[in-house]
């Protein structure tokens, strides 16, 4: 008798259950990779020290510095930390990983970067793994067919100590997007359209699997953008089944199996088997048509308040949304295009990879950032920075009047001094637009790199599709 068809999530979950879930107790789930950074790990290491514990699997722990790190250098090459506390966070992490023999990508590493950018670049992120980090957007790594999710500081300590975690098994939701995306529609637009459809709580209690031709055709960079924002729909994680694109991305990377002795081919065969079986059932299914998705922007104070850029701002559904519209200084029934933009941020673990920077550079090439508007471009890692500079993208950005920065989380969370002033309107490629997220009183519109770049050279929020034909003529449209 054949076994029941299983989903991608079920297959990976079952491989990692140490103690099964009961009515009275969560499952004990083994963790393959624990990513750590300077913000959520210090307290966990302190607890280990107080209890006389060591890190159980330093070989399955990987560290970087990203949240509090400055993205500008002083003239003498020193780093202007925004506060002594920020500097102490970095120094503490570096001391802790040295004490526990954990691999770290610090200042001197050519692989330093945002934790959710550098992990995949190193091949530390692989199909079929369980991955955790003290960071909400760990869901990014689900793009490789991994179960990846953020954990709290206390749980960081638990994983450091025992390499496992207590967790209730979530339900499964399949999100289908089939068809062909229209020109100018990006992975960021796809995930914003999904969140707008199901709501910021629509994924609560679920593991999402992104299915359909749109995700099959999407690049790994694009899949990471989509999975990154799964948490913004309330989901535990987001996943895409591994395929030939996944295998090509990982081949030859530091932590990937060797291609010299057949190990990589064997790994790819195993990874391919993780795809959901035909006939596998999900607890819920959601369907979107690719042709219905247009360039998207947020208009409120959470990612679910998203709309096509060429639509009118919707009516508020409740008092909270009325307050959000008031905070954003917009009105229902009006166009969102034409809003004066004060600042543009292109970066974050959502949109700081090469595909994102190339798209922004294509629009900004030969154009100028509007006087009085600040545009900062922050690559996601040292590798991204190096490749972008090899392609001359940094010259396009600086010639346009944008700032080309050092890698880091930067203005996404505004912990390192990169922030907007009260009342300023920011067009941001990051993942959260909560009130004050990018500085006290700052207003954030989430958008794709193309939309952000278009705003930088226009001075107002505009539909990026008017720049689809790059060159002087296109720039003269605005």
Structure explained in plain terms:
- It is a single chain.
- The protein is α/β, with parallel strands linked by helices and 478 residues long.
- It folds into three domains: 160 residues, 2-Layer Sandwich (Aconitase, domain 3), CATH 3.30.499.10; 122 residues, Aconitase, Domain 2 (3-Layer(aba) Sandwich); 180 residues, Aconitase, domain 3 (2-Layer Sandwich).
- Helix content is 31%, strand content 16%.
- The protein has 16 helices and 19 strands.
- The strands form five sheets. The protein has a five-stranded parallel β-sheet with strand order 5-4-3-6-7, sandwiched between helices. It has a five-stranded parallel β-sheet with strand order 17-16-15-18-19, with helices on one face. Strands 11-10-9-12 form a four-stranded parallel β-sheet.
- Helix 2 links the parallel strand 3 and strand 4.
- Helix 12 packs across helix 14 and helix 12 packs parallel to helix 15.
- The chain is globular, with a radius of gyration of 22 Å.
- It starts with 7 loop residues before the first helix and ends with a helix.
């Amino acid at each position: 008798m054949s076994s029941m068809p299983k989903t991608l999530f079920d297959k990976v979950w079952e491989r990692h259950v140490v103690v099964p879930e009961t009515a009275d107790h969560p499952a004990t789930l083994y963790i393959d990779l624990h990513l750590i950074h300077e913000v959520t790990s210090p307290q966990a290491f302190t607890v280990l020290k107080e209890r006389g514990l060591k890190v159980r699997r330093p070989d399955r722990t990987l560290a970087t510095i990203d949240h509090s790190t400055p993205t500008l250098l002083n003239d003498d090459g020193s780093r202007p930390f925004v506060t002594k506390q920020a500097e102490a966070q970095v120094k503490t992490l570096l001391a802790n990983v040295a004490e526990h023999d954990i691999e770290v990508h610090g200042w001197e590493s050519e692989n330093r970067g945002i934790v959710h950018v550098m992990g995949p670049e190193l091949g530390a992120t692989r199909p079929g793994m369980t991955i955790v980090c003290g960071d909400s957007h760990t869901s990014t790594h689900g793009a490789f067919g991994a179960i990846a999710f953020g954990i709290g500081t206390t749980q960081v300590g638990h994983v450091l100590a025992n390499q496992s975690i207590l967790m209730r098994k979530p339900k499964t939701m399949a999100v289908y997007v089939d068809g062909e995306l229209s020109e100018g529609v990006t992975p960021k637009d796809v995930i914003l359209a999904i969140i707008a459809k199901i709501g910021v709580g629509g994924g609560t209690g679920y593991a999402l699997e992104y299915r359909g031709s749109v995700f099959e055709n999407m690049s790994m960079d694009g899949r990471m953008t989509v999975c990154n924002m799964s948490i913004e729909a309330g989901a535990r994680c987001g996943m895409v089944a591994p395929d030939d694109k996944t295998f090509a991305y990982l081949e030859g990377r530091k932590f990937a199996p060797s291609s010299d002795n057949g190990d990589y081919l064997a790994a790819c065969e195993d990874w391919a088997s993780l795809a959901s079986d035909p006939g596998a059932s999900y607890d819920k299914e959601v369907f979107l048509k690719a042709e219905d998705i247009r360039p998207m922007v947020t208009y409120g104070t959470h990612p679910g308040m998203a709309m096509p850029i060429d639509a009118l701002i919707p009516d508020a559904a409740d008092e909270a949304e009325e307050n959000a519209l008031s905070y954003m200084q917009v009105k229902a029934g009006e166009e969102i295009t034409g809003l004066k933009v004060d600042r543009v941020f292109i970066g974050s673990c959502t949109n700081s990879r090469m595909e994102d920077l190339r798209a922004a550079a294509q629009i900004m090439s030969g154009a100028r950032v509007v006087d009085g508007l600040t545009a900062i471009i922050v690559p996601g890692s040292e590798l991204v920075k190096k490749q972008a500079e090899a392609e001359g993208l940094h010259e396009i950005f600086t010639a346009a009047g944008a700032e080309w920065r050092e890698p880091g989380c930067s203005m996404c969370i505004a912990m390192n001094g990169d922030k907007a002033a009260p009342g300023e309107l920011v067009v941001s490629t990051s993942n959260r637009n909560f009130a004050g997220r990018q500085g006290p009183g700052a207003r954030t519109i989430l958008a794709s790199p193309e939309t952000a770049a278009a705003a930088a050279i226009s001075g107002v929020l505009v539909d990026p599709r008017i720049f689809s034909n790059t060159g002087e003529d296109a720039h003269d449209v605005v």
